[in-house]
Amino acid sequence: MLYGTVTSDGTGVQGVKITATNDSGFSGEATTDAKGAWEIKTPKSGTYTVTLDEATLPDGVALTAESGNTRTVNALLGKVRIQFPTGEGTGGGASKAEQAVQLTVDGLLLGLILALAALGVSLIYGTTGLTNFAHGELVTLGALSTYFYSAVLHLPLVISAVLALISCGILGALQDKVLWKQLRRRGTGLIAMLVVSIGLGIFIRYLFLFFFGGATQQFPEFSGQEGLELGPLAITPKAIIGAIAAIIAILASIYWLLKTRMGKASRAVADNPALASASGIDVERVINVVWILGATLAALSGILVGLTSGVSWNMGQQILLLIFAAVTVGGLGTAFGALLGSIIVGLLIQLSTLVIPPELKSVGALFILIIILLVRPQGLLGRRERIG
Predict the structure, then answer these.
(1) Fewer CB within 10 Å, N or C, the chain?
(2) Which residues neighbour 137 within 8 Å (Cβ) at sequence distance 6 or greater?
(3) Is residue 75 one of the residues assigned to a domain?
């Protein structure tokens, strides 16, 4: 979704026509309201060209020389805000400080979404050593399941989301029992299992495409909401609800890890599986529970992505690289590292648009990933290991 404001010396300009197009033939239009606000719903993630029709500007109002009437943006996750400052050739629009406030909040929201999926990746890696490249499909499955329950079975969105989380948790357990447990029993190496996860991810992804289709769909409820203007900050109610849900899920996961018997057992397995087994811990049962938790968290991440940018067959693949970047920055196999890395990556992606074009915003996160790997290969909270 693309949205923004047209302002003249801080005051909204009404009746200005905004057009958004892409290479796939999409064309959407909007007209600014009394506050200068506009919003265009996009069918899928991708690159869009947004143009302001200067002929619709009122007399005496013109675009600033440095503004221009065209923006090229990449709507990968969530809503993309685009400002068109106008005036009498001197200024107007949001200041850098105001933009930084908005982008910081957007970065935190993105970081929370990434944290849910990254936490699952980190837990699975910590207990099994598997780098699961099919984890993005668990993200997609959460969104698609919610869409099925809400759009096809016509259930309320909240109930649909709960059913999707339960379904994905069960499927996560089955995936471990049917596939990964059997490979572990056969003594399959981690590199071979990584390759299996890549093939599994591709297979499931195109299975989604076959049954769901290539179009991006919206949940029937909350498909469009008017943003709340809190000073320089614009945020939708569903984004606030999503952030609260993500925080609750993250806190519950931390409590599970630190306070419950199974959580402590999972940390013991991550530290030393052989010693944990010798101590009487059922290692396979712990791993299966971790798969349930990881799949459920990934599903919740997919639901929150679907709320903001729609549901598509490859949405998990689109954020998989960011998830791995977050896990690597924080430290592979560490739950708290995954949370820290996700917040860092989310903030870097959004705040980088202050100095680079929005379509290049993922570059900053990947650049910091390279720096971390060069300076501290184990990640910010990871532990250095000695070989030999």
Answers:
(1) C
(2) 200, 201, 204, 205, 208, 316, 317
(3) yes
Cβ burial, residue 107 (10 Å; 0-12/13-18/19+): buried
Amino acid identity at 5: T
**pLDDT score at 373:** 79
Q: Which of 90, 111, 137 is the last residue of a domain?
A: 90
Q: Which residues of 136-151 are buried (b: 16+ CB within 10 A; e: fewer)?
A: bbbbbbbbbbbbbbbb
Q: 81 pairs with which residues across the strands? A: 3
Helix axis angle, 96-128 to 135-147, nearest 10°: 110
Same domain assignment for residues 287 and 370: yes
Amino acid at 383: R
Same domain membership, residue 114 and residue 86: no
Arithmetic mean of pLDDT over the chain: 85
pLDDT of residue 380: 80
The reply to whether 197 and 65 lie within a common domain is no
